[in-house]
Every structure is written in C-alpha cells, then in structure tokens.
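Hello again,

I reread your note about wanting to compare the complex against the isolated chains. To keep things tidy I'm splitting this into two emails, and this first one only covers the full assembly. Below are the input lines as submitted, including protein chains and any nucleic acid or small-molecule components. They are followed by the predicted structure of everything together. The single-chain runs will come separately.
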Amino acid sequence: MLPVLSHLRALEAESLHILRETAAQFRKPVLLYSIGKDSSVLVHLARKAFYPGRIPFPLLHIDTTYEYPEMIEFRDRFTREIGAELRVYTNQDAIANGANPYDLGTSKCCGLLRTRALVDGLRQGGYDAALGGARRDEEKSRAKERVFSFRDREGRWDPRNQRPELWNIYNGKVDPGESIRVFPLSNWTEMDVWRYIEIENIPIVPLYYAKPRPVVLRNGSVIPLEANVKLLPGEQPETVMCRMRSLGCTPCSGAIRSEADTIGKIIDELIGFRRSERENRIIDHDQEGSMELKKREGYF
Amino acid sequence: MLALEHFTARTGEKPLLRISTAGSVDDGKSTLIGRLLHDTRTVWEDQLEELGRSTVNRASRGLDFSLLTDGLRAEREQGITIDVAYRYFATPRRKFIVADTPGHEQYTRNMATGASTADAAIILLDARKGVLPQSRRHAYIAWLLGVRRLIFAVNKMDLVDFSASVYEDIRAQAAPLLALLEGAEADFIPVSALDGDNVVEASPRTPWYTGPSLLELLETIEPPASAVTRPFRFPVQLVIRPHLDFRGYAGQIASGRIRTGDEIVTLPSGRHSRVKRIVTFDGELPEAFAPMSVTLELEDELDIARGDTLAAPEAAPTLARRAEAILVWMNEAALAAGRTYLLQHGPRTVPARVEKILYRWDVNTLEPRPAQSLELNEIGRVLIETAEPLAFDSYRDNRATGGFILIDPIHNLTLGAGLIESAVRRERRGAAGVAFRAARLTPVERQALFGHKGVVVDLSARAALAPLLERQLLEQGHRALLIEIEGLPAEALAEAGQIVITTLPAAQPLVQSADLSADDDEALLELHERLRRSGVFLIQDDVEPGEGI
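Full-complex prediction:
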C-alpha cells in the first residue's frame, strides 16, 4: 500500500515549500501579519518551515489604528510567545489629517490607511518579498493570482504582467524597488484553514468565537461597538450573541449572529452556512470589481 | 518519534484531484465550470445575488453561469477568459482544484501552465463542430505536460437534439488524435452545460449513453501513478543551521521515500552519506515520502548547498550539461538560439543556452516543422546546454524532476517551460585527438567514442525486461541493441562496441540475469548496477561527479 498524504498535509507541505523558497530567493522578505485566522495559519506554517531555526524574517502589521483592541492584545502576546520579530507601520500622515471612514467613506479610508500604508510600509522597510495569507477562493480577482505575484516599483499589480507558474518552480527575480507578493495559502479554502487550525490547535483572536457582544445594527450588518465606532443618529446599542467571520476595522466590519464558541462549532456552522466570508466586509461591495480595483492600486 | 499516521490520517478531508480545463469562448467551458461550481453548492448565495445585480449578463435564459468564473472586469465585459483561474470545489467524495485556462492559440502558455500540475484534463467540444484543430491542440498540450487522463466533454448536445450519431461521429473523429497521444486514456461524455444534462446528474435525454456524468467520472477516476513509486529525489532548498550542532537540509521530497539510515548520494558532487534524522516541527520521523516537506540531517558533514539534489544511490538521476528538451515558448520576444538565459530547475538556477532548435510542432496538426526560432506559444524540440551540470530525470519518467523554466536574465520574465527528454552525449574527439580520419577505428578509440565497452547481457531468464533495458540504455546515450532472433552474432557485435541484450541463452555473457529481484523495477536497477560493476561504462553520462564544481 502506497502511503498518501492527507489533503491538509499535502497543502501544508506545499506551503512549507513556498515559505522556504521565499526565504531562499529574497534578500529581505517580510510576512504581512493581519492577525486574522489566515495570518495565524501562515505564521504557524512559517514556524514549521524553518524549524529548528527561527522564522528568518519579521512580521509586519499594518495598523490602521481602528483595529479591535483584542487584536492588538493578541498580536503583542502571541509574537512575544513565539519569539517572532514584530514591526508595526501606520500611515501617520493620514491619521494626523483626521482620516476616518465616516468622513471619507470606506473606499478612501482604506485607500489611505491600508493600501497606501501597505505600499509605504513595504517601501520604507526595503522589502523585496511580502508574504501574505490570501487565498484564491476568497474573491474572484484572487482566483487568477499567482503564488509569486509580481509588483512593480509602485507596488501595483497588473494582470498582464504576471509570470507563468508551472509545477512548483517559482521565479522570484526582481530589480531594485520591485517586489513579489507571495501567497503560500493560495490553494487553501476557508474550510481548509479552519480544519487546520483545529487539528493544529493554532491560537486565534477571540473575536472569531461567539459570545454576547454589544453591537449596533446598521444597514443589515451587525457592528460590534468598540471605542472607534460612532453611533449615527437614531441608532441604539444592543447585545447580540455573535462572532466575526472576517476581521477588518471596527467601524467597517460586520459580525454574524452565531452560537459557535469553539472551532468545531465554527466548522459545523461553516458547512451549513453559505454566505461568502467577505460579504460582511463592506469595502468589497463599494463597486463591482472593487477588490480588483484596489489590487491595481496596490492593496493586498 | 512521530508516527507517520500524523501525516496520513484523514481528519475530515478528502483525496484531491487537480484538473485542467481547456476550451474556447464559444464552447461553453465557462458555463460548464460555472455549473459544476453551482451544482456542488460551492457558490455562495451572495455571489449569486451579486450575479443577479451585475450589469453584465449575457445569458438568454436564467443565470449566466459563466459570470461565476470570469473574474476580471474586462473579461466580464468582453465575455472571454484571459488568464489561468484556479477554482476549488468539493463533493462528499473528493476535493477538486480546477485550473481553468483559455482556449485561444495565443494562450497556449496558460494552458501549459494549468496542465503542468493536473491529474486529468477536461477538453470541451462543441457538438455542432466536432473535433477542431483547437481541440487537438488542447489535448496535445495537456498530454505533453504529462496529463494522461483526458475527458472530452461533448457540449451543446441540446443544439443537436441529443443525437447519438453526432456523438459517435465525434468519437470517431477523435480516434486518430488519440492514437498519437501515447499512454492517454480518454473518456467522452455528451453534455449540455447550459441545461445541465450529464454534468452532475444523468440526463433522461441521452438514454443511449450509459456512461457516468461528468461529476461522477471526476469523483471516481484514479489519480495517476504516485510520485512515491519513483526513485528518491530531494532537491535542497535551504540549509538550516541555527547553531553549530545542527545542520539540516530543508526541501520537499520530489519523489520516492526515505528512511532514517538510508544511504544517499548528493549531486552534482557525487559524495555519499546516510540520513541521520528526518526532522519536522512536529517531531522526528522514521520515514518520509513524496510530497512531504522535511528537513534531513546527514551522518557526514558535507558541503551541500541550495540547488544540490540528494538521491537514491542505486537509481540516481542523470547528471549532464547537455540535454534534449521540449520547450514551450511563453514570451513575445522569440527564442534566440545561442543567447544566454537562466534555467531554473527546482531550486537550482544555472546559466543556459539553447544550442539548437531541432524542429517545432504545428500544434494544430501535430506535424514537425523546421524552425529557426520559437515564437510565443510555439512548442519545439531543442538542444539545451547549461553552464553547470543538472541532476534530472526525463519528464516522462518523473514530472517533478524533469521540468524547468527559462528566465530572461535582464528583464526577469519567465520566457519558457522545458520538459527534459534525455541527456545528450558530447561529440567525442578521437582518443589520441589526431585526425587520422581515413584510418580504421581501433577498439580503444571506439570505446572512447561510445563512452562504454561492448558486452553481452543474457536476459533469457527474464525476457520481459529486455526491451525495457534496451530503452533505458539508449536513453542514457549508450549503444544498446536487443537481439531476439537466432543466428545473429552477439559476441561479434559486442566486440564492435555494442551492449548486446539477448533473450536467447548466450555463450559467454559478461552480465547475467540469474538471481534478479522478482520485482521488475528493482531487477532493472540491479542490471544497471551489474553493468556498472563489470566496468562497461567508462564515463558516467556526460560528466564525472565532482566535475564543474
């Protein structure tokens, strides 16, 4: 009987290979750490890839300052525990000029605090490769994304400029100023990520687990009330048993009503539950093809 | 010590099948995939809602499923797919990764990309048009890149009244094509992607068709022969050296298996050692197999670096600087023979040049044509030379170690993908280097030219192995000849420098087939070893291990 890898282990092996290629091919790689579940899996894989050595590159968090406090807490504790080097970058200029989603609208705010910050943060660090936890199944414009995705000097993605990727051979050659975004989780689906978290006992931000939370119901979304979230005229706070399916900034991410307070229950819920992960990320619905536009502008 | 079950035990997931799809805009391929995604309930409800809201809807009835797969805005507006898109769906029985590629000739490169990791290919045909040149092209490219399971979806059956004779006709049209694709297994399914007939469920409108629906077939086909059965190959990606007491080589096992204590040879240096430990984050392993990513610690302190290959010593890869390869050209700037490119083979990158273009194939008729260069999307057979030796297998034998890409050293683009066929022997000068062209060849000169001595190999006890051995030796560049007829002078031919393989009992064979392993693959390895030990080979392929360091 020939030994066969279980599906998750096959995906894991592929991801370890990609992480190692990144460390080997680039002068100055960095891991874009968004503190979300995909990032958590990515960091876990990075620990495995270089064992018994340490992760040979830093973790970079693009902090919009509108993140959930629980995320920041988790970030600091976790990175300290595993001995990873954490770097944080914020678009200070925009913050100083009062950037926020209420006044600017989500499109512009993300543009400054995420997209611009990401491009600037990467440039400031002089990184030639940025690892991220994006998956192809997340959104239509990511379906065509390469594992090694070329970005020009301005950090922009051009679908016509990507290199053919055959077998497991990755061409990471870049000129000064250019960079590659590397996506080791390209072939993982949302379900794969959760199952892997389950079998590996990977710690994730408590926001993913259901618990009674103070929220405001706005435009069909359930928005947890955090310090940054303003109540608009006519709105009332409520307490709802809910959890975050996808993490974003406090004013712009919706929670879902749920009783799932363990990974097992989250997975069961996922099986029965067909709404797309990103549906509650309001930024995806700004315009048709909105993620694609943001990618052309440099957003991850 | 960690048990291997840690990696093989199923925890709620299913076996995986990778599929590539090919078909033109008009064949309804996007509709077919869209329907597969929809009917396996992968598509999230809100994406369907969004479809409804979309301003671009070309369907004459119901939902336009092709919109589920056309991601880029420009494509959605024009209704064509420009690039390779990866889709994921699952049924209770299996998980699928679909590499959806466009059908136009100008996207041959994308088709090759999608097919490179595929286990099976779905080729779409329009029932009204039958097997077109593009269908031949799609099948050929998939087959070339190593796909041996071809599924022909005869689509738009609704437009030909679900006629059995149209379907049979198309099968007959495809027969000559299939005859060219050695080793390919083909299935034909009459479908209507638009209406759903035979896509997921059997259609009542094709009572004459007794085969499975497309999804049923996809769920039940066997994945191709596993990489685990090939000889052990471990291309080193990274040396992990956290402190002086540990030196590990990190990589993904390309093929085969390895156990603690196994002997390995490193290439290109040719040095031997044993595996001391198989290290992973989860624990030490007693053994590992392809495609696991592990870290190997060896008994000896060797100078191994990224790009080296660790391999099974009794079945080592070919080490050579010159090879014949099939090249798929993927760039607007044509291939220029003689120009220096970079060749990336796994983690190894070396300067290389295409010495000569032997010919190219007309991908629509599959006929060879003379060629001075290869243009974008052309496929040709070339002679390639590298600055340093590569350790490889022929692509046909090992997809994981037979492929490479060519990179533009100035603009960094991936220009082409190569499939190695075999090493090519360097033309040899006479042993004395003297140009006595008119003189008769001496046995010594002959041996120097051939790179080996002549010998008789008696395989009368294992006649079935004879053709395989002949092929293997020829592929390695040796003069081998199989004799199965009485009365041919085996010994005399051996004197003349041939490695004569005979299935008839020979009088004075140097190499015998007694006591060979019952397993054919192992027996062949043993025969090669016996040949080696008998001193037949003067030179190891093109390069001595250690040369060129």
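For quick reference: Confidence is low (pLDDT under 50) at residues 53-61, 71-82, 428-435, 539-549 of chain B.

B.
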